[in-house]
Amino acid sequence: MTPSRTAFAAILGKDLRSELRTLQSLPAMALFAVTTFVIFRFGLDRTSLSGSLASGVLWATLLFAAVLGINRLFVSEREEGGFDAIRLAPIDRTVLFAAKASALVVYLAALELVTVPIFAIFFLEDAAGLGPLVAVLLLTDLGLAATGTLISSMAVNSRARDLLVPLVLLPLSIPLMIAATGATEPLLSLGGPSYDRFGTWLMVLGLYDLIFGLVGYAVFDFLLED
Amino acid sequence: MYGKGLKPLSIAAVAMLALSLSLVFFYAPLDGDQGFIQKIFYVHVPLAITALIGFVAGGVFAILHLRSNDRKWDAYSYVAIHISVIFGVAVLITGAIWAKASWGHWWVWDEPTLVSFLIVFLLYATYYPFRYAIEDRDRQARYASVFAVTAGAFVPLNFMAVRMAESLVHPRTFATAEGGMPGEMMLTFLCSLVAMGLLWTTLVKFELTAKSASGQVKRLRRALDAPVAGGSSRIAPEVS
């Protein structure tokens, strides 16, 4: 039996290499996010944002851009017979969950690497809050990856694939958004970053990541049964 | 088979509801600040607690379905979630009525429990389009169970997160209602809670019995080569 580490590295490597070569999700996600920033500039009629508005615009945009990527996460598996290959291979099937979720974390991190500086240039007065924001971004990415991978793997086998992911994922990500915006709002406030309840929000994010990571790990096997 | 005990259960539920409503109107004292309006609490909160327990029960049945692969657990899970969603609508409506009477607005974002409940309700409402989108019945049942388990894990986390989002300055209605409730109010509340629990169980049993009966009729018709009347639902699990 192939050790899980090898299988995990193989699947993760395949996904990242495939994305690097075809670039089908990342540029779209980034473009979507930047265009949404422009829409918010006009929708809110503001050229500079701080506090709760900044946090809200940033997180809403990142969430919707993430959904674009999540929609496409398992499409290649379905079309190229990846699911059958995983079922046949002598590996633990939850490796697919772990590998896909990790790939999604990488995509989200790459997305944020591009869009958060652009957000800062467009709307923020000073970039002092961006350092600690990295911790919030990372923890939220883990949570989005866990739930997103789970929902995506179910939606890919359904008829209304592009509808199902936003429909089911959005309510599930509300606690993530509550915690992420709660932590980000004081970081982006006008007078400079403040760390009001920062630790508490990070703990909530961590708890969400843990719970949904475990849930995903526990149920994923049932999803691959034929 | 499911119908056994349905009649005594229904009678018990109706009797308990009648008892608790009489207690609400004739026995429970009037609340100091809210007056008569407060009495809707005896309907709203038991409905909410029962609905939430129902959602968790749906999750538990789903776990049993995944582990045993027996489709009857999927039917139990489906019906539990179904009745809880209906109770959820009642919770939101009674909550809105209470909010309008107490604070003058049909909806308030200040009440964390109501907002958390709205989010949970929205999540479980997606259960139906989710089931509908998956064609293969076997897979549909399995995925629906995974959804129910995930959603069940989500409920407590959601309540915690929303509560934390509220500023600690805002007064919480339930802090005044539950903490230091006089004995008469507590008794009335507990009676209402039992009544709603019985109502939920009766409705679940009723729906399972109805599904079981129509399933048997369909099977008999098919065996007799008679036309099978009515469109069969694409999502409701068949109960044997």
Query: What's the alpha carbon Rg of chain B, rounded to whole Å?
Result: 20 Å
Task: Spell out the helices and strands of chain A N to C.
Answer: HHHHHHHHHH
Shape of chain B: globular
Share of helix of chain B, binned: over 70%
Notes on the structure:
The complex is a heterodimer of chains A (226) and B (240). With 226 residues, chain A is mainly alpha-helical. Chain A has one domain. Helices cover 80% and strands 0% of the residues of chain A. Chain A has ten helices and no strands. In chain A, helix 2 runs parallel beside helix 6 and helix 3 packs antiparallel against helix 9. The longest helix of chain A is centred in the middle third of the chain and has 30 residues. Chain A is globular, with a radius of gyration of 18 Å. By secondary structure, chain B is mainly alpha-helical. Chain B has a domain of 126 residues. In chain B, helix 2 crosses helix 8 and helix 4 runs antiparallel to helix 6. The longest helix of chain B has 41 residues. The chains are: A mainly alpha (226), B mainly alpha (240). The interface between A and B is medium-sized, with 33 and 29 residues.
